[in-house]
Amino acid sequence: MGDLLSEYLTWWPDLWAGLQLTVMLTLTGMALALVIGLALALARLDPRRRLLALPAGAFVELIRGSPLLLQLFYIFYVFPFFGLRLSPIAAGILGLGINYGAYLSEVFRAGIEAVDHGQWEAARALGMRPRVYLPLVVLPQAIRIVIPPVGNYFISLFKDTALVSTISIGELLFRGQLLAAENFKYLQIYSLIFVIYLAISYPASLGIRALERHLRAGRRLGLAELH
């Protein structure tokens, strides 16, 4: 047992460096995904603007219809043929952001459409234009609806950062693979990596569930007060 603990302490600096990169990829990838997702959702909300709605819809289906791993390969290995050469980290962030942005766009769209249409009509009756009432009236209410599913996607993104190891990014899994290749301690190293992912994702999942219950209770209380 002491020897195993000593080995874990020896491996920890490398794994810690990989974990830090994993967290960075998660945060930056999610930030990009939120921007892309909201932009795509707003573009698809008004079918009268077909010049925006149709390309946005086609883009979402294209991304959702192909695996994230292939998208990462395409960005890193194929984009240079068109003159766009990205570093592995930039390619990883872009791939994660685009992939999750496509999925989040459906979450945002559903959340916005779930806002009581009386709110939309009231804003229009006051003479507000969409560029005014969307950010001031509709989006604040939609955010309350979409927080739980967005949180779940955030946890999924944290785990999917392991895929960027395929384009030579030294995140947690990549560091573990290098260590295992050096000493052949596959069981010990991959078990430790499994525990690290679980130690972060499981508490985060519990937090998201607690937040979801809180928001649901707050919504029921608000409805009760209206009645």
DSSP E strands, number: 0
Helical segment count = 8
CATH 2nd-level architecture? Orthogonal Bundle
Low-pLDDT residue intervals, each spanning 5 or more residues: 221-227
Structure explained in plain terms:
It contains eight helices and no strands. It is mainly α. It has one domain (2-226): Orthogonal Bundle (MetI-like fold), CATH 1.10.3720.10. Helix 3 packs across helix 4 (88-114), helix 4 (88-114) crosses helix 6 and helix 5 (117-125) packs antiparallel against helix 6 (130-160). The model is unreliable at 221-227 (pLDDT under 50).
What are the salient characteristics of this protein?
mainly alpha; MetI-like fold; 84% helix; 227 residues; disordered C terminus
What's the SSE blueprint?
Blueprint: H1 2-45, H2 50-64, H3 68-78, H4 88-114, H5 117-125, H6 130-160, H7 172-183, H8 186-226
Helix pairs in contact: 1-2, 1-4, 1-7, 1-8, 2-4, 3-4, 4-6, 5-6, 6-8, 7-8
